[in-house]
What we know:
The protein is mostly beta strands. The chain has 4 domains: 2-85, Ubiquitin-like (UB roll) (Roll), CATH 3.10.20; 91-163, Ubiquitin-like (UB roll) (Roll); 169-235, membrane protein fhac (Ubiquitin-like (UB roll)); 320-545, membrane protein fhac: a member of the omp85/tpsb transporter family (Porin, Beta Barrel), CATH 2.40.160. It is 14% helix and 50% strand. The protein has 7 helices and 29 strands. Mean pLDDT is 93; it is low at 1-8.
Amino acid sequence: MLPFLFLTYLKIRSINIDGNTFFSTSEIVEALRLKEGGPFSRVRLRSGVARLHILYASKGFFSARINSSYRINPDATVDVFVKIDEGRRAWIVDLVFEGDTILPYVDGLERNFRPVPYDEDFISSLETDVYYFYYENGYPHFQMTRDTTFLNDTAVVLREKISSGPPVIIKEVVVEGNRHIRPAIFFKEIVVEPPETFRYSRVMESVRRLYSLQVFDAVNYRIRDDSILVFVVRESRLRYLENNLGFTYPSYLYLSFRLGHYNIFGNMQNLEVAPVVLLSFSDGVSIYERRLDIYYRERYFLDRKNLRFNMNAFHYRTRDVNEYGLNAETIKEFSRYFYVHFGLSWKKTEAFTYQPFVNINSVFQRATYDDRNNILDATFGALMSLYIQKAFTGANFWKMTEVYAIYRSLDIHTIALRLRGGQIFSREEVPYSERFLLGGEGSVRGYDFNSIGTVVSDSLNPASTNYLNFNLEYRNHLSSRFGFVLFMDGAWTSDTLSLLFSRRPALGYGFGLRFYAGFAPIRIDFAVSDRFRVFPADVRIYFGVGNMF
Length: 549
């Protein structure tokens, strides 16, 4: 007993792998779950060898021989040795489907099958495709079991036994579990239209649309009497209070709140009050920026399920600007990912010491395509948006903004790129509040908040009528709980579009830490600008929830 206890406290000095050709040494060590400098025990080693046997068998090396040994050194360290004889890899030489209902798609897979190396990933992918095909063609009770027959050590026949169950024609859709949501609302979102053949994709699209109402904690479905599709829901609270916190070292603290009701008038009308405060610590504690929005949203405008209506009244005040106004817009959904806004805007705005109050009336339109998999932590997809505004009273200008963001991932690595641009065309002076302000959180990290642009007055933050902003991030999900980010931000600004690239861009660089604790990552970013001179005075630290873009 004592020698065994002693061995558990030994440290591994080296791990030596010999004979492997199919798997790399790093893959072998990862499967062993041993590491140099880590603890050693015979139990750990035996468990690791067992996992290696499973790993090799998953790729068809059923006759692989794996021998392990270890050597204890005088300094209480251990050298681990693993000798591998992989043997020959088995091939799947035939694929056979058996059962009560063999659809033409499955029959085609069998007839067109050609021998392939044995691979559990290949088999799982094949089975998933077959399951989906049956689910999509009216067989929600489909089941399939695998029976592997070995002709010899290197030849395998894969037999899949099918039990399809009866075909299902949906003749009725029923909702259970709703207490406050009217049944008519469900049938605006459920895309299944009886009578129709059961199709898994249409059922799941209905589930997705019901979740998008934001009033359900759970949405499930079941088939009753082989003809009735039952959606079972669990309602969440219709009233909500949410808050968000952001911090930029050393100067700013961001606080926001959302208080609202998702279904205030019974037809998915949303009423929300959203105050935002930005506190500054640069010269004592003061309110640098404040905003109050009151939103009213109709999901089914004019009782149409793909037409929405939004309206918000707002008051916005900073050290430079004071404005209040009203926006109203309709939103037409053309697909799950593409929608178009059309709206009217009125606001009364002034820039202290620079421009008196002016009333601005305008019309605007926005087209958006967004297929990101997660708004707060996207790993794939794209966002494209074009915004056009025409002011026709109080000021006379055209304003355009463009956004393009793309996300691509490979395993734990994600590359995220965002490009944003803006232009204002006018033959007269543009109101200060309509100009573009950049710098700091949201645009170019490393720079102070709203510090990039054209100087229009000594008493105001720089602001421009044309800009191009880029953000590039490399994101690494080291584990399910932790990751890091390397980033580079930049921006060009000018009051003359043709001279936009005539000067050097403002650049920011840095790295960040990500802590995954639920629906969004907690973000801490450390950044410096291209004007970095003094450490740590010129370092900026940003704290928030969700990635910046």
